[in-house]
Amino acid sequence: MIGASLGAAAYERASEISAILAVANPVGDRRLARLSSRPDVVLALSGIGISFGGVKALSDVDLEVEVGEIRAVIGPNGAGKSSLINIISGLYHADRGRIAIGGQSFSRVPASRLARLGVARTFQNLALFGGLSVRNNIACGRVHTRRASFVEHIAGLPRARSEDAGIAEKTDQIVAFLHLESVADRLVATLPYGLQKRVELARALVAEPKLLLLDEPMAGMTATEKAEMAGFVRAARDRHGVTIILIEHDIGVVMGLSDRVAVLDYGRKIADGTPAEVRADPAVIRAYIGTAEGENGEDIR
Amino acid sequence: MAVQALDAARLPVDWAKLVQKLALATALFVVAYGVVPAYASGYLVEAILLPFLALSLAAVGLNLLTGYCGQLSLGSSAFMAVGAFGAYNFNLRVEGLPLAVTMILAGISAAGFGVVFGLPSLRLRGFYLAVSTLAAQFFVQWALTKFGWFSNDNPSGVISAPHLAVAGLSLDSATGRYLLSVTTVMVLTALVWRLVNSATGRNFIAVRDNETAARVIGVPVLRTKLLAFAISSFIIGIAGVLWAFTYLRTVEPAGFNLDRSFQILFIIIIGGLASIRGAFLGAAFIVVLPLFLSRLGAFLFGGLFDSGVLDMSQRIVLGALIIIFLIAEPSGLSALFDRLKRRIGSRSS
Ligand SMILES: Nc1ncnc2c1ncn2[C@@H]1O[C@H](COP(=O)(O)OP(=O)(O)O)[C@@H](O)[C@H]1O
Ligand SMILES: [Mg+2]
């Protein structure tokens, strides 16, 4: 939006400089400082790089996300999308670069404080608590707001009870919002895959995050389920005002849902802009056609 | 009006179930405090009920840690020993300490030990954690044998149960010891039941089922694990007091060896992981099995079935059962019990 093509050249130069300086990245740091002080920027990544035993999963990725937008990140399998989400949520630590979340800047995001920073996420592979009911899985999403100790819980003291009541109310709202009433008291592990994905979205939404990271929330779903899920994602933004980073393979879904799209290929950001801009970008077409005929079989429609 | 309707919809009170629960609780109290003290033989109390109660409580404690929180431990016996020797020393060295306070202090000592030996759980998982809890096992036995102070300088480290009394009432008889044991077990089990159904209990399960997801949503993973070790060890420690004071009456450190730790682990595997009822079913099974085998063996083979053969056959049967349960019914006796209940329920309706 803010002139992706204009920025591209400058970023390229910045990355050269940072490659020479190897560790310090003054250009990126200054850029991050500028971005993170802007109230409309929820998240700003600057010069993010990470490698796994020689495999460069991400190199020099910049990304900013504005309040209230649905920001898609697409790219072929292995492009580094999940790594990016894992860095933002503190599960991976970037080798270089900085992450600014709501004005606070980190080189390593503290995962255990993520919820309190206003960030919630779902996982590419389901990460639910199989031994708990749907309702209790969702209620866990508000655990970061709890203060009562285990003694207060055992004794049923007022603070524990009021926390429970407040969380039960919020849980009920999300259960209704995502139409999970009929399965709310079932063990989550007994639900079909598509519904489990929805419970994971519910567990993230109940935290009332400012920023929601969705790693392939529609993967493996039928067309109907996908459409339903897309509706929920949009409704989450429209009704709850949450900013969303969405990783998704289905280009049709992405183009219809997102405000801006960033494209990763082999760990580099090769394009960034509105869906229309990205669709017309020659580098994107090349990357996708290259892989569509290759081993990955990504579809671009 | 509208609010009432909404509440009623959200919390449907199942009266039939409530009545059933009340009836069950009443029956439990009548049996525990009426029928057993009045009619149970000395043999039944001394040889079956007292070990059953102490082992059940230890299994409830281990189930909290392993079944609910997913932290495998082979140190149960060590925590029982800390509880037993702790209670012995508190009672010996502090004049006029009430029995309840002695037991709580013993539990707290065991909890402290549990936290220290639970520290590796912050780094290690599964099998590796289990191996590291062995350290507790060996350390405690070594310390209790090495330092005579713990057993008041008894040459072989043996301790004997002190005079047991609550509010001046002597509990030294078999019935008295039974009442002490059953009350302790019921109170602690009720508290554990409250715990596992609270937000803290759900944190335990979250850490067990997906530690990464738990961390990201804000479950304090490290604190939760150490809390599980502390509460679990507290309960196992008090089970150790019951084992030493109400059942055996005299114990040596070697009585709390690795075999006992495995026995408690087998109880929760056979009874059912993450099930309080399973701890009791498993303990009943483990206590009754040798008695059953010896009767059966004597009936089938007469004098040939001596204690050596009994011991061996018990190990073989137990080993086979563990394997069968792990493969065919990982949820243990508790799940079998549920299935049986449902089948009977569907036939009668
Ligand atoms: N934990 C990890 N250990 C080793 N390699 C990893 C790890 N996570 C990701 N990678 C590697 O990083 C690259 C990018 O992976 P990923 O971020 O999962 O891609 P995507 O989500 O776009 O499919 C892949 O080559 C993958 O093998
Ligand atoms: Mg991925």
- Taken as a percent bin, the fraction of beta residues of chain B is under 5%
At CATH level 2, the architecture of chain B is Orthogonal Bundle
Largest interface: A-B, 36 and 27 residues
Strand count of chain B: 4
Instruction: Count the DSSP helices of chain A.
Output: 11
> Count of helices of chain B?
14
Spans of at least 5 consecutive residues with low confidence of chain A:
1-24, 292-301
**How would you name the oligomeric state of the polypeptide chains in this document?**
heterodimer
The biggest sheet of chain A, with number of strands, parallel, antiparallel or mixed sense and barrel status, is: 6 strands, mixed
CATH class of chain B: Mainly Alpha
Alpha-beta content class of chain B: mainly alpha
Overall pLDDT confidence of chain B: 91
> Helix-strand pattern of chain B, N to C?
HHHHHHEEEHHHHEHHHH
The best one-word shape of chain B is globular
The CATH top-level class label of one domain in chain A: Alpha Beta
CATH architecture of one domain in chain A: 3-Layer(aba) Sandwich
Mean pLDDT of chain A: 87
Alpha-beta classification of chain A? alpha/beta
Q: What name does CATH use for the topology of chain B?
A: ABC transporter involved in vitamin B12 uptake, BtuC
Poorly predicted segments of chain B: 1-10
Describe the secondary structure blueprint for this structure:
The complex is a heterodimer of chains A (301) and B (349).
Chain A: H1 4-21, H2 26-36, E1 41-52, E2 55-66, E3 70-74, H3 81-88, E4 96-101, E5 104-106, E6 119-121, H4 134-140, H5 150-155, H6 158-177, H7 193-205, E7 211-215, H8 223-240, E8 243-247, H9 251-257, E9 260-265, E10 268-273, H10 275-280, H11 282-292
Parallel strand pairs in A: 3-8, 3-9, 6-7, 7-8
Antiparallel strand pairs in A: 1-2, 1-4, 4-5, 9-10
Helix pairs in contact in A: 4-7
Chain B: H1 2-10, H2 15-39, H3 42-68, H4 76-93, H5 99-118, H6 126-146, E1 159-160, E2 165-166, E3 169-170, H7 174-196, H8 199-209, H9 211-217, H10 221-248, E4 250-251, H11 258-271, H12 276-301, H13 307-328, H14 332-348
Antiparallel strand pairs in B: 1-4, 2-3
Helix pairs in contact in B: 3-7, 3-10, 3-11, 3-12, 4-5, 4-6, 4-10, 5-10, 7-10, 8-9, 8-10, 11-12, 12-13, 12-14
